[in-house]
Amino acid sequence: MKFSIILPVKNGGVYAKECVDSILSQSLQDFNLIVLDNCSTDGTLEWLQSLNDPRIVIHQSEKPLSIEENWARIKSVPKNEFITLIGHDDILNTNYLQVMADLIQKHPNASLYQSHYHYIDGDGKILRNCLPMDEVQQAHEFLALYMCNLIESTGTGYMMRSGDYDDFGGINPVYNNLIFADFALWIGLMGLSYKATSFDVTFKYRIHNSVSKVTNGEAYQQAFDKFLEFIIEQGGKNEKIKQVLERYGKRFLLYFCEALAHRVLKTPRDQRKITVKNLIDKYKSYAARLVPHQDFIPEKEFRIKIAKLLDRSIVGRELFLLMKKL
């Protein structure tokens, strides 16, 4: 058996059933489905067991785990030669595994594989296509496009060798809510060789209140801190990545400084330890490491300047929340 499709889940409900049905309907049947159930209480586990399908391998957790702990189990379970990870609310088209098998045959030396995909809403309606991707992409090219906000990436749809996944350490649980954990994994795996992408559409990624969207500003910033440490480390190992960081680092930091300043601002003050000013100071320290020879003054950006001003008082924070509702 060549492929393992890995599904971490906790109370997946109807979405998980739709996801599993799409997996079991693959035109290429050379796979097993590894389910990492995290103490589901909504009938998900019982439904999976009732299928009595020999392709399904269920690993039940002995106690409730955090999302980070459950996904960390991927590294320790037996897997086939190639693995792909899937969110319980995403859907594979019937051609997914066949397209991946063909892509692996075409690019046997690639270290990561992907295809194009559709975004869908909560009801399964197609919203749009993903942004187009090149067939062959190096780690530094992927990072450059990401830092310029010119590429999209999800945790679903990537195919990799299980040995490479384990050697890298897998999805790293140090990232709060696993934010940026998948980006770090993709960059690390691409660094072994390159990513090959099929132009075929082979899966659907569901957009709704994802973990990243509902994570508060402080937790998101902590995850970003880990990711920045990672890419700086990669820059020390790879000259092309180092050049990407020097060229696009300032733009990248300003983008996230603004985004997180607003995320912090909308987080109730009693639910966070940092202020927008603290965040800005943090990003200045990032810039000193990432782009030490470039001026970095976030307050020159209007939206960052306003966020800092509004965060100084209760009235300002309430005004911001009111404006967000309009």
UniProtKB/TrEMBL annotation:
Ranges of residues in domain Glycosyltransferase 2-like: 4-128
Gene Ontology terms, MF aspect: transferase activity
Q: Give yes or no: UniProt keyword Membrane.
A: no
Q: Which SUPFAM superfamilies match?
A: Nucleotide-diphospho-sugar transferases
Q: What InterPro entries does this protein's entry cite?
A: Glyco_trans_2-like, Glycosyltransf_2, Nucleotide-diphossugar_trans
Q: Which UniProt keywords apply?
A: Transferase
Q: What is this protein called?
A: Glycosyltransferase
Species of provenance = Ginsengibacter hankyongi
State the organism's lineage. Bacteria, Pseudomonadati, Bacteroidota, Chitinophagia, Chitinophagales
